[in-house]
Each structure stands twice: as C-alpha cells, then as structure tokens.
Design brief:
This protein is α/β, with parallel strands linked by helices. The protein folds into 2 domains: about 10-185, 3-Layer(aba) Sandwich (Rossmann fold); about 200-290, 2-Layer Sandwich (Pantoate--beta-alanine Ligase, Chain: A,domain 2), CATH 3.30.1300. Helices cover about 40% and strands about 20% of the residues. The protein has 10 helices and 9 strands. The protein has helices at about 5-15, 20-35, 50-60, 90-100, 110, 130-135, 140-155, 165-175, 205-230, 235-245, and strands at about 15-20, 40-45, 65-70, 105, 155-160, 185, 250-260, 275-280, 285-290. The strands form 2 sheets. The chain has a 6-stranded parallel beta sheet with strand order 1-4-3-2-5-6, sandwiched between helices. Strands 7-8-9 form a 3-stranded antiparallel beta sheet, with helices on one face. α3 links the parallel β2 and β3 (about 65-70). The longest helix has 22 residues, at about 205-230. It starts with a helix and ends with a strand. The relative contact order is 0.12. The structure holds adenosine monophosphate (AMP). Adenosine monophosphate binds near residues 54, 161, 164 and 198.
C-alpha cells in the first residue's frame, strides 16, 4: 500500500473514529494533496457481511477507505423505527479495524442537520415507484445525506449494495445529474446461508418470523426459475410470488413488482435487465429483496 498519511495519522493518534465535519475535511484535504484515492462506504452501522463486502471492495481499489456510520433521521418518517434501529458502535469499530478501514465518520445529527437546514436534493422520478409508494420521503432523505457526505468526503469511488437496488439507481442518477466527481460501484447482495438477504433489520425477527422471512428469497428464486423456463408474463409471475408469500405466517406484502432496471417502470413482458423486487412486512419488520434477470 505504500506510505499513507492517514495511517501515520492513525499511528500517531490511534484514532479511527471522527465525529466532526471539520476534522474529516482536514484529513480528506491532506490526502487529496497527496493524490490518494478515497473509497467511501456510507452505512447506518450495525455492520454485517453485506457492508463488509463493500468495505473489502473499497479496500482493494483505494488507498484510503472511509466508512460512515450515521443513522440518518431524514430517511425515517415519524412512524418508522429510527429510535429502535439497531446500533453497536463498539462492534462496528472493531469490524472496521479488522477490515483495515482508515477512518470511520460518525457525525452528530445536529451537525449534519443544523436547525436552519432547508435544502432538498430529490431524484424526482426514480424515487416514486417501489419503495417510494409506501415511503414517500425516504429517498429524499437518502439523497440529501449522501450528497452531503460526498461533499464532505470527496470520494473517488463509492460503494453501494444491490440489496437496495432502487437506492443504488437513485444515487447513480444523482451522481450524474450533479456532476459529482465520483465513481459508483454496485455490489451483489450478500445472503445468509439459507438465502435471506443480510440486513441490519433481520435482528428484529423472532425465530418464527425468521422462517417466514425466507419466503422473500425463495419466491424470488421461484420467479427466476419461471423466467429461465420461458415465462414472460409479469402478472403470472407476480401472482405466483404473492401466493407463495401469503401462505407464510406473519407476512404482509407491501409490493411485488417487475420493472425495467433503468427507469423502474412496470413491465408486462419480461425482457433483459428486468428487476423483480419486493417489500414484505414480516411481523413488525419491513424487509426488501430483489433479483435482476
Ligand atoms: P445500510 O447500513 O442498511 O444503510 O446499508 C449500507 C450499504 O450496505 C447500502 O449500500 C446497502 O445497499 C448495503 N447493503 C446492505 N445490506 C446488504 C447486503 N445484504 N448485501 C450487499 N450490500 C448490502
């Protein structure tokens, strides 16, 4: 890796956790002056293997790796789980150290959103379908925080997961529309052994709910098989998925959609680059998953 200023910085101060915007900016600036490439992984913490896959990709491709841990209030509506969202900073720090992350940016909400804050960043069409229907303010909350983090960290490369397929497309659009000098990398969904997509929210599931939660992955696999076997009719596939999930206890379907993976518009007939995406409540936990076919 060669000599990296930030490593010396860490050695000197043994400090990996940065809370203040001014402080991280100073470190970013010094690394920029030394032409170091910065890889950035934005997260809400409670890290799991999905996050770690992004961190590893960033570590492999950049001289400096910065992970942000920020449970972003702007993307939660008042009736959602902001307060209960799982947090474990000590464990996250230890994972980041193991993965040789250079810096963790863990800002205070008051500094990200001071009282007088009023700017909006909105990717107006892509935010509407899928998760946007039941969570109308969700993606505006994401784009504002991601834009702010990009401005603070000035990453050369950013890493997002395909698990949040709509989010990844929206951030990609925002990067292009606002000319952020950063390259977007979208990495595959990391799953538990049995197929359940990893998510910080899986922690909420009871043992029985956990069994039902597997119906998301299983029904997507079933859809994929149907498509591979020549089924082209979206409605037929969606109703099979619906039936499969409805049969499992604790489940309540938010949406099952088949869309083009560009504009996220519903397609009647399966073509290439089609996304089968779903959101399902399992008990009090809303889970999402998708497969690209
Ligand atoms: P979160 O902490 O849930 O906001 O997620 C932070 C980043 O990790 C986002 O880019 C997610 O898409 C990504 N991510 C979350 N879960 C997974 C997973 N199971 N596989 C791959 N990436 C994931």
């Amino acid at each position: 890796m060669g000599k990296i200023w930030v490593s010396n910085y860490q050695k000197m101060s043994k400090k990996i956790l940065i809370e203040e915007i001014g402080e991280i900016r100073k470190i970013v600036k010094q690394n920029k002056q030394r032409n170091k490439s910065i890889g950035f992984v934005p997260t809400m913490g409670f890290l799991h293997q999905g996050h770690i896959s992004l961190i590893r990709a960033a570590r492999a491709e950049n001289q400096i790796v910065i992970v942000s841990i920020f449970v972003n209030p702007a993307q939660f509506s008042p009736d959602e789980d902001f307060e209960e969202y799982p947090r474990n900073l000590e464990r996250d720090i230890s994972i980041c150290k193991d993965e040789k992350v250079d810096l963790i940016f863990n800002p205070k909400s008051e500094e990200i959103y001071p009282k007088e804050f009023e700017t909006k960043v909105s990717v107006s069409e892509l935010k509407k379908p899928l998760c946007g229907i039941s969570r109308p303010n969700f993606f505006d909350g994401i784009t504002i925080v991601v834009a702010k983090l990009f401005n603070i960290i000035e990453p050369n490369n950013v890493y997002f997961g395909q698990k949040d397929a709509q989010q990844a497309l929206i951030v990609k659009r925002m990067i292009e529309d606002l000319n952020f000098p950063t390259r977007m990398h979208i990495l595959p969904i990391v799953r538990e052994r049995d197929g359940l997509a990893m998510s910080s929210r899986n922690k909420y599931l009871s043992d029985n709910e956990r069994k039902s939660a597997l119906s998301l992955y299983k029904s997507l696999q079933m859809a994929k098989k149907m498509i591979e076997n020549g089924e082209k009719n979206s409605n037929i596939i969606k109703s099979k998925i619906r039936k499969f999930i409805k049969n499992m206890p604790f489940t309540k379907i938010d949406y099952i959609e088949i869309v083009d993976y560009e504009k996220l518009q519903s397609v009647q007939e399966i073509r290439s680059n089609t996304l089968v995406a779903l959101a399902v409540w399992v008990g009090k936990t809303r889970l999402i998953d998708n497969v690209l076919v």
